[in-house]
Write a structure and sequence with these properties.
Elements (H helix, E strand, L loop, with lengths): L1 E4 L14 E6 L2 E4 L5 E4 L8 E5 L19 E4 L10 E5 L53 H14 L6 H11 L3 E10 L5 E12 L16 H14 L5 E5 L2 E13 L5 H16 L15 E3 H9 L4 E11 L8 E3 L1 E3 L5 E4 L5 E4 L2
Parallel strand pairs: 9-10, 11-16, 11-17
Antiparallel strand pairs: 1-5, 1-7, 2-3, 2-6, 4-5, 8-9, 11-13, 12-15, 13-14
Helix pairs in contact: 1-2
Protein backbone atom coordinates (compact mmCIF):
# COMPACT_ATOMS: atom_id res chain seq x y z
CA UNK A 1 0.00 0.00 0.00
CA UNK A 2 1.15 3.51 -0.83
CA UNK A 3 0.59 6.00 1.97
CA UNK A 4 0.83 9.48 0.45
CA UNK A 5 1.20 12.19 3.09
CA UNK A 6 1.37 15.96 2.95
CA UNK A 7 5.06 16.67 3.47
CA UNK A 8 5.97 18.86 6.42
CA UNK A 9 2.64 18.57 8.26
CA UNK A 10 4.11 16.57 11.15
CA UNK A 11 5.19 18.66 14.14
CA UNK A 12 9.02 18.43 14.18
CA UNK A 13 9.10 19.25 17.91
CA UNK A 14 6.96 16.23 18.82
CA UNK A 15 8.45 12.91 19.83
CA UNK A 16 8.27 10.28 17.12
CA UNK A 17 5.38 7.88 17.72
CA UNK A 18 5.22 4.17 16.98
CA UNK A 19 2.46 3.10 14.60
CA UNK A 20 0.24 0.33 15.98
CA UNK A 21 -0.99 -1.99 13.23
CA UNK A 22 -3.93 -4.36 13.58
CA UNK A 23 -6.40 -6.30 11.41
CA UNK A 24 -10.11 -6.91 11.88
CA UNK A 25 -11.22 -10.47 12.47
CA UNK A 26 -14.59 -11.61 13.86
CA UNK A 27 -15.35 -8.03 14.97
CA UNK A 28 -12.14 -7.80 17.01
CA UNK A 29 -8.96 -5.91 16.23
CA UNK A 30 -5.95 -8.23 16.32
CA UNK A 31 -2.57 -6.49 16.77
CA UNK A 32 0.12 -7.22 14.20
CA UNK A 33 3.59 -8.09 15.43
CA UNK A 34 6.67 -6.47 13.93
CA UNK A 35 7.32 -9.63 11.91
CA UNK A 36 4.09 -9.07 9.99
CA UNK A 37 5.27 -5.67 8.75
CA UNK A 38 7.44 -6.81 5.86
CA UNK A 39 8.26 -3.31 4.59
CA UNK A 40 7.69 0.22 5.85
CA UNK A 41 9.36 3.13 4.05
CA UNK A 42 7.15 5.82 5.64
CA UNK A 43 9.44 6.26 8.66
CA UNK A 44 6.44 6.28 10.96
CA UNK A 45 4.24 8.30 8.56
CA UNK A 46 6.75 11.14 8.44
CA UNK A 47 7.19 10.76 4.68
CA UNK A 48 5.25 9.15 1.86
CA UNK A 49 6.11 5.51 1.35
CA UNK A 50 5.05 1.92 0.85
CA UNK A 51 3.93 -0.46 3.59
CA UNK A 52 3.80 -4.20 2.93
CA UNK A 53 1.91 -6.35 5.44
CA UNK A 54 1.58 -10.12 5.83
CA UNK A 55 -2.11 -10.71 6.59
CA UNK A 56 -2.52 -13.33 9.37
CA UNK A 57 -5.08 -16.13 9.38
CA UNK A 58 -7.05 -14.44 12.17
CA UNK A 59 -8.32 -11.94 9.59
CA UNK A 60 -11.87 -12.50 8.34
CA UNK A 61 -14.15 -10.60 6.00
CA UNK A 62 -17.29 -11.61 7.90
CA UNK A 63 -17.57 -8.60 10.20
CA UNK A 64 -20.39 -6.32 11.25
CA UNK A 65 -18.19 -3.76 12.99
CA UNK A 66 -17.24 -2.43 9.53
CA UNK A 67 -18.56 -3.16 6.05
CA UNK A 68 -18.33 -6.93 5.39
CA UNK A 69 -16.59 -8.39 2.37
CA UNK A 70 -13.36 -6.44 2.89
CA UNK A 71 -10.10 -7.01 4.74
CA UNK A 72 -9.77 -4.13 7.19
CA UNK A 73 -6.37 -2.90 8.38
CA UNK A 74 -5.94 -0.27 11.08
CA UNK A 75 -2.96 1.99 11.70
CA UNK A 76 -3.21 3.85 15.00
CA UNK A 77 -1.30 6.45 16.97
CA UNK A 78 -2.56 6.55 20.55
CA UNK A 79 -1.20 9.98 21.49
CA UNK A 80 0.44 13.08 20.01
CA UNK A 81 -1.18 12.66 16.62
CA UNK A 82 0.54 15.86 15.50
CA UNK A 83 3.77 13.82 15.35
CA UNK A 84 2.68 12.18 12.07
CA UNK A 85 1.87 13.79 8.73
CA UNK A 86 -1.62 14.32 7.39
CA UNK A 87 -2.76 11.86 4.75
CA UNK A 88 -3.55 12.65 1.15
CA UNK A 89 -4.46 9.14 0.03
CA UNK A 90 -3.93 5.41 0.51
CA UNK A 91 -3.39 3.39 -2.68
CA UNK A 92 -3.37 -0.45 -2.78
CA UNK A 93 -1.01 -2.66 -4.82
CA UNK A 94 1.82 -0.12 -4.93
CA UNK A 95 5.32 -0.89 -6.20
CA UNK A 96 8.32 1.45 -6.59
CA UNK A 97 9.96 1.83 -10.00
CA UNK A 98 13.39 3.29 -10.73
CA UNK A 99 14.63 5.04 -13.86
CA UNK A 100 17.41 2.94 -15.39
CA UNK A 101 18.47 4.83 -18.52
CA UNK A 102 18.51 8.58 -17.84
CA UNK A 103 20.40 9.55 -21.00
CA UNK A 104 17.56 11.48 -22.61
CA UNK A 105 15.56 12.28 -19.47
CA UNK A 106 14.51 15.94 -19.27
CA UNK A 107 12.42 15.70 -16.11
CA UNK A 108 15.13 14.90 -13.58
CA UNK A 109 15.19 18.32 -11.95
CA UNK A 110 11.44 18.96 -11.73
CA UNK A 111 10.25 15.35 -11.51
CA UNK A 112 8.12 13.23 -13.82
CA UNK A 113 4.56 14.61 -13.65
CA UNK A 114 1.76 12.47 -12.26
CA UNK A 115 -0.09 10.21 -14.72
CA UNK A 116 2.90 10.09 -17.07
CA UNK A 117 3.24 6.30 -16.74
CA UNK A 118 0.18 4.39 -17.93
CA UNK A 119 1.57 1.10 -19.24
CA UNK A 120 4.49 -1.30 -18.84
CA UNK A 121 7.30 -1.88 -21.31
CA UNK A 122 6.39 -5.57 -21.41
CA UNK A 123 2.97 -7.14 -20.77
CA UNK A 124 2.43 -8.18 -17.14
CA UNK A 125 0.17 -11.15 -16.52
CA UNK A 126 -2.65 -10.38 -14.09
CA UNK A 127 -2.18 -6.60 -14.24
CA UNK A 128 -5.24 -4.83 -15.64
CA UNK A 129 -4.24 -1.19 -15.19
CA UNK A 130 -1.18 0.85 -14.22
CA UNK A 131 -1.55 4.23 -12.52
CA UNK A 132 0.99 6.84 -11.47
CA UNK A 133 -1.01 9.05 -9.08
CA UNK A 134 1.87 11.32 -8.01
CA UNK A 135 5.01 12.87 -9.46
CA UNK A 136 8.37 11.12 -9.24
CA UNK A 137 10.87 11.94 -6.51
CA UNK A 138 14.60 11.81 -5.64
CA UNK A 139 15.72 12.86 -9.11
CA UNK A 140 18.58 15.24 -9.85
CA UNK A 141 19.62 16.94 -13.05
CA UNK A 142 23.12 16.31 -14.44
CA UNK A 143 25.71 18.55 -12.82
CA UNK A 144 26.79 21.46 -15.02
CA UNK A 145 30.32 22.85 -15.10
CA UNK A 146 29.54 25.78 -12.80
CA UNK A 147 28.01 23.53 -10.13
CA UNK A 148 30.89 21.07 -10.51
CA UNK A 149 33.54 23.74 -9.96
CA UNK A 150 31.65 25.12 -6.97
CA UNK A 151 31.29 21.69 -5.38
CA UNK A 152 34.94 20.80 -5.93
CA UNK A 153 36.12 24.14 -4.51
CA UNK A 154 33.99 23.64 -1.41
CA UNK A 155 35.23 20.06 -1.05
CA UNK A 156 38.86 21.19 -1.18
CA UNK A 157 38.11 23.72 1.53
CA UNK A 158 36.23 21.56 4.06
CA UNK A 159 37.64 18.14 2.97
CA UNK A 160 34.36 16.54 4.01
CA UNK A 161 35.01 17.44 7.65
CA UNK A 162 33.04 20.00 9.64
CA UNK A 163 35.45 22.19 11.59
CA UNK A 164 34.08 25.70 11.11
CA UNK A 165 30.62 27.22 10.88
CA UNK A 166 31.11 27.55 7.11
CA UNK A 167 31.90 23.83 6.87
CA UNK A 168 28.75 22.78 8.72
CA UNK A 169 26.51 24.96 6.58
CA UNK A 170 27.92 24.04 3.18
CA UNK A 171 28.19 20.32 3.91
CA UNK A 172 24.52 20.21 4.91
CA UNK A 173 23.39 22.34 1.95
CA UNK A 174 25.31 20.10 -0.46
CA UNK A 175 23.99 16.88 1.04
CA UNK A 176 20.37 18.00 1.42
CA UNK A 177 19.10 20.06 -1.56
CA UNK A 178 15.73 20.46 0.19
CA UNK A 179 17.38 22.86 2.66
CA UNK A 180 17.43 26.47 1.47
CA UNK A 181 19.54 27.93 4.25
CA UNK A 182 21.38 26.79 7.37
CA UNK A 183 22.66 29.07 10.11
CA UNK A 184 25.39 27.75 12.41
CA UNK A 185 25.38 28.85 16.05
CA UNK A 186 28.67 28.09 17.80
CA UNK A 187 28.71 27.19 21.50
CA UNK A 188 24.92 26.99 21.46
CA UNK A 189 22.76 23.98 22.33
CA UNK A 190 19.48 22.97 20.71
CA UNK A 191 17.56 25.17 23.18
CA UNK A 192 19.57 28.22 21.97
CA UNK A 193 21.38 28.51 25.29
CA UNK A 194 25.12 29.15 25.51
CA UNK A 195 26.89 25.80 25.90
CA UNK A 196 30.59 25.25 25.07
CA UNK A 197 31.16 22.18 22.92
CA UNK A 198 27.77 22.41 21.21
CA UNK A 199 27.01 23.47 17.66
CA UNK A 200 23.45 24.07 16.49
CA UNK A 201 22.32 24.38 12.88
CA UNK A 202 19.05 26.24 12.35
CA UNK A 203 17.38 25.10 9.13
CA UNK A 204 15.04 26.71 6.64
CA UNK A 205 13.39 24.55 3.96
CA UNK A 206 13.40 25.29 0.26
CA UNK A 207 9.63 25.15 -0.04
CA UNK A 208 9.13 27.64 -2.87
CA UNK A 209 7.70 25.01 -5.22
CA UNK A 210 5.75 22.92 -2.72
CA UNK A 211 2.52 23.21 -0.77
CA UNK A 212 4.41 23.78 2.47
CA UNK A 213 5.60 27.13 1.06
CA UNK A 214 2.21 28.58 1.96
CA UNK A 215 3.08 28.67 5.63
CA UNK A 216 3.79 31.37 8.17
CA UNK A 217 6.03 28.95 10.06
CA UNK A 218 8.22 27.18 7.45
CA UNK A 219 9.79 24.10 9.01
CA UNK A 220 11.86 21.15 7.86
CA UNK A 221 9.97 17.90 8.37
CA UNK A 222 10.92 15.68 11.30
CA UNK A 223 12.28 12.88 9.09
CA UNK A 224 14.73 15.22 7.35
CA UNK A 225 15.85 16.78 10.65
CA UNK A 226 16.60 13.30 12.01
CA UNK A 227 18.50 12.43 8.82
CA UNK A 228 20.57 15.62 9.07
CA UNK A 229 21.39 14.92 12.72
CA UNK A 230 22.66 11.47 11.75
CA UNK A 231 24.78 13.04 9.01
CA UNK A 232 26.23 15.66 11.38
CA UNK A 233 27.46 12.88 13.65
CA UNK A 234 29.54 11.46 10.79
CA UNK A 235 31.25 14.71 9.73
CA UNK A 236 31.90 16.44 13.06
CA UNK A 237 34.42 15.81 15.82
CA UNK A 238 33.57 13.41 18.62
CA UNK A 239 34.22 16.30 21.00
CA UNK A 240 31.40 18.35 19.45
CA UNK A 241 27.66 17.87 19.93
CA UNK A 242 26.14 19.01 16.64
CA UNK A 243 22.35 19.29 16.36
CA UNK A 244 19.98 20.50 13.64
CA UNK A 245 16.76 22.26 14.64
CA UNK A 246 13.97 24.31 13.12
CA UNK A 247 13.75 28.06 13.75
CA UNK A 248 12.10 29.60 16.79
CA UNK A 249 9.13 31.69 15.67
CA UNK A 250 8.31 35.00 17.34
CA UNK A 251 4.76 36.25 16.63
CA UNK A 252 4.08 39.80 15.50
CA UNK A 253 0.82 41.57 14.69
CA UNK A 254 -0.56 45.07 14.22
CA UNK A 255 -3.56 46.96 15.57
CA UNK A 256 -4.99 50.14 14.05
CA UNK A 257 -8.03 51.99 12.77
CA UNK A 258 -8.48 52.57 9.05
CA UNK A 259 -10.70 54.55 6.71
CA UNK A 260 -11.01 53.39 3.13
CA UNK A 261 -11.54 55.62 0.12
CA UNK A 262 -15.14 56.20 -1.06
CA UNK A 263 -16.60 53.23 -2.90
CA UNK A 264 -14.56 50.68 -0.94
CA UNK A 265 -16.82 48.92 1.60
CA UNK A 266 -15.15 48.28 4.94
CA UNK A 267 -16.19 44.61 5.30
CA UNK A 268 -14.69 43.62 1.94
CA UNK A 269 -11.55 45.75 1.97
CA UNK A 270 -10.60 44.91 5.54
CA UNK A 271 -9.89 41.35 4.41
CA UNK A 272 -7.98 42.60 1.37
CA UNK A 273 -5.92 44.87 3.63
CA UNK A 274 -5.24 42.01 6.02
CA UNK A 275 -3.94 39.86 3.15
CA UNK A 276 -1.73 42.69 1.87
CA UNK A 277 -0.24 43.17 5.34
CA UNK A 278 0.48 39.45 5.59
CA UNK A 279 2.20 39.52 2.20
CA UNK A 280 4.33 42.47 3.37
CA UNK A 281 5.29 40.98 6.74
CA UNK A 282 5.74 37.39 5.51
CA UNK A 283 6.50 37.41 1.77
CA UNK A 284 7.70 33.79 1.93
CA UNK A 285 4.15 32.63 2.72
CA UNK A 286 2.88 33.67 -0.70
CA UNK A 287 3.49 32.06 -4.07
CA UNK A 288 6.35 33.73 -5.90
CA UNK A 289 7.73 35.44 -2.80
CA UNK A 290 11.32 35.14 -1.59
CA UNK A 291 12.24 32.37 0.88
CA UNK A 292 12.13 33.14 4.59
CA UNK A 293 15.26 34.40 6.31
CA UNK A 294 16.50 34.56 9.88
CA UNK A 295 16.34 37.53 12.19
CA UNK A 296 15.78 40.92 10.65
CA UNK A 297 14.07 44.09 11.80
CA UNK A 298 10.57 45.40 11.27
CA UNK A 299 10.02 49.12 11.78
CA UNK A 300 6.62 50.41 12.85
CA UNK A 301 7.08 53.46 10.60
CA UNK A 302 7.81 51.26 7.56
CA UNK A 303 4.59 49.28 8.02
CA UNK A 304 2.60 52.53 8.35
CA UNK A 305 4.18 53.85 5.14
CA UNK A 306 3.30 50.62 3.33
CA UNK A 307 -0.36 50.75 4.39
CA UNK A 308 -0.60 54.45 3.47
CA UNK A 309 0.72 53.65 -0.01
CA UNK A 310 -2.18 51.28 -0.79
CA UNK A 311 -4.55 52.81 -3.32
CA UNK A 312 -7.74 51.90 -1.44
CA UNK A 313 -6.63 53.29 1.96
CA UNK A 314 -7.59 56.87 2.89
CA UNK A 315 -5.88 57.14 6.29
CA UNK A 316 -5.01 55.14 9.43
CA UNK A 317 -4.85 56.05 13.12
CA UNK A 318 -3.87 54.53 16.47
CA UNK A 319 -1.31 52.21 14.87
CA UNK A 320 0.48 49.74 17.16
CA UNK A 321 3.05 47.04 16.35
CA UNK A 322 3.14 44.08 18.77
CA UNK A 323 6.00 41.61 19.16
CA UNK A 324 6.14 38.57 21.44
CA UNK A 325 9.77 37.68 22.05
CA UNK A 326 10.84 34.11 22.72
CA UNK A 327 10.03 33.18 26.32
CA UNK A 328 7.69 36.13 26.85
CA UNK A 329 4.19 35.41 28.14
CA UNK A 330 2.52 38.11 26.02
CA UNK A 331 3.15 40.54 23.18
CA UNK A 332 4.35 44.09 23.82
CA UNK A 333 3.91 47.23 21.72
CA UNK A 334 7.23 48.21 20.12
CA UNK A 335 8.64 50.74 17.68
CA UNK A 336 11.04 48.17 16.19
CA UNK A 337 10.46 44.41 16.19
CA UNK A 338 13.71 42.47 16.15
CA UNK A 339 14.49 38.80 16.70
CA UNK A 340 15.50 38.27 20.33
CA UNK A 341 17.88 35.37 19.60
CA UNK A 342 19.91 34.04 16.69
CA UNK A 343 18.01 31.47 14.69
CA UNK A 344 14.61 33.08 15.25
CA UNK A 345 12.10 34.23 12.66
CA UNK A 346 9.55 37.03 12.97
CA UNK A 347 6.21 35.83 11.66
CA UNK A 348 2.68 37.32 11.71
CA UNK A 349 0.86 34.32 13.14
CA UNK A 350 -1.31 36.37 15.52
CA UNK A 351 -4.47 37.97 14.03
CA UNK A 352 -4.30 41.64 13.09
CA UNK A 353 -6.80 43.94 14.82
CA UNK A 354 -8.27 46.24 12.16
CA UNK A 355 -11.25 48.45 13.02
CA UNK A 356 -13.04 51.31 11.29
CA UNK A 357 -11.85 54.88 11.87
CA UNK A 358 -15.19 56.36 10.80
Amino acid sequence: MLFQVRDGTADPSSTRREIEWSVLGSNHWHPLSAEKILLDTTNGFLVSGIVRILIPRTTTQLNTLLEPGFTWIRARVTSQTQAVCRFLSVEPNAVPVTLVDATAATHLESGLPAKSIATSALPLRGVKEILQPYASFSGAAPENESSFRKRISERLRHRNRASTAWDFEHLVLQKFPRIYKAQTLNHTDRFLNRNPGCVTLVLLPDARSSESAISLTPQVDAATVAEINDYLATISSSFVTATAINPVFEPIHVSFKVAFRPGNPFASYREILRQDIQAYLAPWAHTGGPPADFGGLLYRSAIIAFIDSLSYVDYITDFLLFHQAAGASSAAAVQIASASKPGTLLTPTAPHLITSAT
